[in-house]
Amino acid sequence: MPLKLSIKQFIQILNQGKEVIDTLFGKKDTLQKNEIIPYITSSNPENVFERLTIHGVIHEKNGKINLDDRVVTLLEDYLEIGEINTETISGDIKNLKNNISYYRNDNQIKYLRDIRKTLRKINNTITRQIILLDNQVDRTFKTEQNYHNRLQKLNNYREERDNVLELIHETENILAKEKGFFNNVRDDEIQFLQYELKRTLYDNKDYLKAIQSQIIEYINRIKINPDIAEKIHKFKELRDNAEFRFKTNINAVIHKNTSLLFNKTETFKWNVSIDFLTNTDTGRKILKNARRKISSKDNEEAVKGKKQIKQKTKQKEEIQRLDINKFFEKFKKSELDLFDFIFTNEFSENIPQEIDDKLSYFVEISLDFEKEIYFNKEIKHHFYNDKNGKKNKLGYAVIFPNKH
């Protein structure tokens, strides 16, 4: 059983075993002892392992070492790399309501202290959960190899996004319902915290709209060519199992195709060693020239960035905001689907109407008026040229207004 420690002792133990903890947490949760020893700078690694084991920071079994789950949770929470958990927010909202009720019944300072703590926690937790959601959506699309798992995970994150949005609305309702309490309580910090929370909730709703737009875009991109994804997966499986020659006619196809004979031979550059760059005159000259080029390039980009900011500031003064409500009323009277209606509509000159702007109108309407529209199961495609003249293909859901 781990020995009881004070906070000072616990921090000291973590500091002494920082190489072990970093190695286990940074690579994988279970390693052989001899895999960790090279990373330990202490002259007596066995002593480090013994102290961490005695105090329950690590566990050893059959020569394998892993971090205690409590330490892993502590690091994930602080570094904001854990899993999404909306139950924490729900519990904090319940605590806020209860403590306000307790204070009304008995005006004790301890309830105000709990209210301050809960307001601060809700503010931090909601923002952290949204950042985690955004990171995991992006990571899933870029790293998940299985087509079905990637699609299922993105749909699950879509539900998580709806859950967080529902909790934001619930929190806003509590702040509005308890407006009298917050206005009359003689505590400047509580009034400041509830103001900060309101502003955070407002900003995070926009953040969630952007995440929803990103999820829809990723799902559409995944669904465009599922057959190709399946073929690539089978191709990779055959390659990994070295079964090309036995289960396909790849040799015959390659012999018939002579186009590779006319391709240029590719040359590959070798990486220069660190020792050569740091310990030779030629290497040091290369580093000096590279540093000079990078510095001059950074200065040019900084000047260019300042000019662009000034231009954007001037343009912002002339830009008008599209009235989404009036625009949606016009859409309800049309026979077109939402995408065609937006892309064929004639906007006034001062309203942003680049393709990115029109896509943002499409997403905003689909989110704000979801009860007044319905999604056709069909997916259409839009072809356009970007600023560089490159052809692009965009998939979108077909949306019509409810006619009843």
Structural overview:
The protein is mainly alpha-helical and 404 residues long. The chain folds into four domains: 7-78, Winged helix-like DNA-binding domain superfamily/Winged helix DNA-binding domain (Arc Repressor Mutant, subunit A); 85-227, no CATH class; 276-318; 324-401, no CATH class. Helix content is 68%, strand content 9%. The protein has 18 helices and five strands. The protein has helices spanning 7-16, 18-26, 33-36, 45-54, 69-79, 86-105, 109-143, 147-177, 179-184, 188-224, 226-240, 244-247, 250-256, 274-279, 281-318, 324-332, 338-344, 355-368, and strands at 30-32, 58-61, 64-67, 373-385, 391-401. Strands 1-3-2 form a three-stranded antiparallel beta sheet. The protein has a two-stranded antiparallel sheet with strand order 4-5. A hairpin with a 2-residue loop joins strand 2 (58-61) and strand 3 (64-67). The longest helix is centred in the last third of the chain and has 38 residues, at 281-318. It is extended and about 90 Å long. The termini are far apart. Residues 313-319 have low confidence and may be disordered.
